[in-house]
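Much of what follows relies on a compact textual record of a protein's fold. A record is reproduced here so that you can trace the correspondence yourselves:
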Amino acid sequence: MSAQPKVITPRVIVQMLFFVVFIPFLPLLISGDWRWWEAWVYAIVSILGFAISRVLAARRHPDLIAERARIMQHEDTKPWDNLLAPLVGLGGGLLPLVAGLDARFDWSPAFSMPVKMIALVVFLTGYLLGGYALIENRFFSGVVRIQTERGHQVVSSGPYRWVRHPGYVGALLAYLATPFFLDSSWAILPALFLTVALVIRTALEDQTLQAELDGYREYAGRVRYRLLPGVW
């Protein structure tokens, strides 16, 4: 038997530390304001949200973490997602980057405390919903592809009873809430960029699943909405 390739390599570890630890701390690192409690909350929630959801997902679906770790190795990723997935990753890094620059150079006036508290609730809701979707869905890959070697099936339990792409809903909630929680009007621009990119990705992914995944068209007939119940 041939040896299985290692999933957790030094390169994967470095990438994980960069995206999971360094990126969330960008507002603090760039602003230099270590008393900025909102940025501390943003970083801690981002890191813990990632870590806890992955631990719980690994306990339920041990092969899911391996699938997500090989994000750059899949040869059957849809061609359009080879562009969209990196764009979403870039936008996810631009959001805290712009917020940090905004704080450092004082570009934007602060939002009121009620606005920031609402934003925090939306931000936390986004992480909870995204984590719930990840834990529930064994096929929650980091790229869009039909995972035939893993017995890809339709998942209709958990948050997938409400919308067809709850992971994207969670991400959008977190992205859109971040500028308001971090007092950065300029960060609304990358948040809107991410919204457009994820809506396009959702539409293309849904088309792919309906065309290529057995049972998905029937599931789409039962769960009508992709992202926003009553709208789309």
About this structure: The chain has one domain: 10-222. Residues 1-5 have pLDDT under 50 and may be disordered. Residues 10-222 form a domain with the Four Helix Bundle (Hemerythrin (Met), subunit A) fold (CATH 1.20.120.1630). DSSP finds nine helices and no strands in the chain.
